[in-house]
Design goal:
CATH class: Mainly Alpha
Number of helices: 9
Strand content: under 5%
CATH architecture: Orthogonal Bundle
Mean pLDDT: 91
Helix content: over 70%
Distance between the termini: 58 Å
């Protein structure tokens, strides 16, 4: 039962932090939304800061299990079409998974207040994606699917527009289907330019 309550607190905290930010989230309101008293919450977490850190830990693992990490890189595609499909799959996860969307919003809000949020935002919005696609592009070059180029520069050129489109979905979720179409079109265009015929 205690584990269930702890998870419920973290789920509610993610919702509130992603909507109101850290400073705008009140522990009394958080516990009341769960039907708990403050003392019940303090049996699981000693402070709002402890909730914050536990939430970032949980969401880092959640994100990496679904989207990839240096320890869990995606397989190198065997064709340009497989690469487009991989991109679409990754975009679907990051745009449509509610926890990942809320985590991205939370990091966007808190990156200027909290060093850990800043570092995670940089990793998830820039360096982690670059590293992942550098690996993928280098592997695709080894398989002679792509022209020989600097894979890191290619990764930067590829991930920046996709990241911008994903953030557009956070601001304007009604455009999600349009964004997915644009990501697919961009992926195909990129493969047309850099792919080996």
């Amino acid at each position: 039962m205690a584990k269930g309550t702890k998870e419920r607190i973290l789920t509610a905290a993610l919702e509130m932090f992603s909507q109101y930010g850290y400073a705008g989230t009140n522990i009394r309101e958080l516990t009341a939304s769960l039907g708990l008293g403050k003392s019940s919450m303090y049996r699981h977490f000693e402070s709002k800061e402890e909730i914050w850190n536990a939430l970032l830990d949980e969401m880092t693992v959640y994100y990496e299990n679904r989207f990839g990490s240096p320890e869990h890189l995606p397989p190198v595609p065997d064709s340009l079409e497989e690469f487009v499909a991989m991109t679409k799959h990754m975009a679907e996860i990051t745009i449509r998974d509610g926890k990942i969307v809320m985590t991205r919003k939370l990091l966007t809000i808190e990156q200027f207040r909290d060093d850990r949020a800043r570092d995670l935002a940089t990793k998830h919005f820039l360096t982690g994606l670059e590293d992942m696609f550098t690996y993928v592009f280098a592997g695709m070059m080894e398989k002679e699917l792509l022209r020989r180029e600097d894979p890191g520069m290619l990764a930067f050129a590829y991930t920046a527009p996709v990241t911008v489109l994903i953030h557009l979905c956070d601001r304007e979720p009604e455009r999600t289907d349009e964004v997915m179409e644009r990501i697919e079109a961009f992926s195909r265009h990129f493969m047309k330019i850099y792919g080996n015929k």
